[in-house]
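Changelog-adjacent note: as of this version, every example in the card shows the full chain rather than a window. The one below runs 206 residues end to end.
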Amino acid sequence: MYGFVAKLLMSKQLEFGQGHIKLLEQPICILPSTFVEILMKQSMISREEMLKNYLEAWKAGYIFMYNVVSRYKLNTPDERYRVAMDTISLSGMGDYKTEEFIPFSHTRFTVIENPLALRFHPSDSPVDHVLRGFNAGGGTPVHARIMNCVELECAAVNGKQCRFVNASIDILKTLPEDIVKSQLDVDFLIREEQKFLESFGHNVPV
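Full-length structure tokens:
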């Protein structure tokens, strides 16, 4: 991670200006992690709140990664994935480790020592609904397909690590049905994601 930060600074792809910060030409801001923690708590109030916050995070993740892909002309899934993983490593949301990356299909990855999830330990159920949304939205330009994300394991439950699958609709159908149904409303989300993409004139296959 430190080498990546040094590279960004030297190439002026991480810029600190008067009242602004840019990462890979995208404006970013540094907020206390308690802000995300508040969103996580809101997502636990009801299924409706969970889906709403997931979807908004999906949109934010998509816009950020789409702009990076376009700006730097990242033409292959491998290029896009490498930049996405390097970037998410700067988020302070844990140490991302790839388990499996299959372009246009899915990604499996583990997040070790996710500090936000650990704040909710011990919990009876996964809590990373906002992070799932960011993962899936950012993964959509990477895979050039609409992706959604489920959390198979959560540090809030096990006190150690989180395991995610960023998945196309085909792969979602192969995952444990109870987990998918508890975390996603697939038909609703894909419909809303398609509407959002169409508002930008983006035609992304499901």
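Structural remarks: Residues 47-71 form the longest helix (25 residues).
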